Amino acid sequence: MGINTQVTQDYEKTKWLENLGRYIANTITLTEFDLRKIWHDSTQIWVRLVQPVLWLVVFGNALSKFRVIPTGDYTYMQFLTPGVLAQSVMFIAIFYGITVVWERDLGQLNKLLSTPTARSAIVLGKALSAGVRGIIQAVAVLILAIAMRVNLNLHPLNLVAVLIIIVLFGMSFASLSICLASIFKTRERMMGIGQAITMPLFFASNAIYPVSIMPTWLQYLIKVNPLSYMVDALRGLLLPGYISSLRIDLLAIVITTVVLVLLASLNFRRIIN
To answer: Measured between alpha carbons, how far is 169 from 256 in angstroms, rounded to an integer?
Structure first.
């Protein structure tokens, strides 16, 4: 009896490992498939660099000279760079639902859903792709900041942590975009809702000005804004001596990512209905 139980347990463990391996392989395959689009058409990367360039080169330089925003021991360009970096990643991820709607219109989603691939693996693969795209955007922003002689902490371990946070943040907003795509279902509506989300989140965060100068009601909104946790984490990693609530920031980002990936997985099939 004991031998049979052990054999059954070993079989179930082996089966579980096989399923896990297949799940991971499917996720990576879908991520790779989405990233190939960048290789064939990189113009979307260059076009989306226009906004962060304007924020740093024009907006950042102008306010640095006027010195109207109190940023403590840091220049305004130092203070602004993590905020622009986070905003550029969010901008890429929040419009990812448009790509999903486009794939639905081409019939690619129907083919994908007809395979035995788990819906959560599909969502996770696409969200991970958005996170990797965020890395490409973030590297470009950091190179621009370095070229502008912004003093940043570029320790290798800090940069690795920055890339991990960027991937998680990109995944969370890509998952949010997929959830929205299951509701609005057209590219035109997704474009409008993307703009309606990104700008309020950006301005109602600590990305371009410190929390201390904001009105009280806005300070409460910042506490539930995921972008604020992203920006605070990036400042803690990139600004020399900056004191941030890094553990709380990471916890908030991880929880947001997990919840949104689960919601997107549950609602994914509704996109084609």
So the answer is: 8
Structure tokens belonging to residue 267: 């609602």
pTM attached to this predicted model:
0.86
Alpha helix segments (H runs only) across the chain: 2-40, 43-47, 50-53, 61-66, 76-94, 96-105, 108-113, 119-147, 156-184, 187-203, 216-222, 226-238, 246-267
Q: How many domains, in total, are found in the chain?
A: 1
Q: Which residue has the tokens 């058409």?
A: 41
Tens of pLDDT, residues 196-220: 888 888 888 888 888 888 888 888 8
End-to-end Cα distance, the chain: 50
Q: Which domain holds residue 36?
A: 2-272
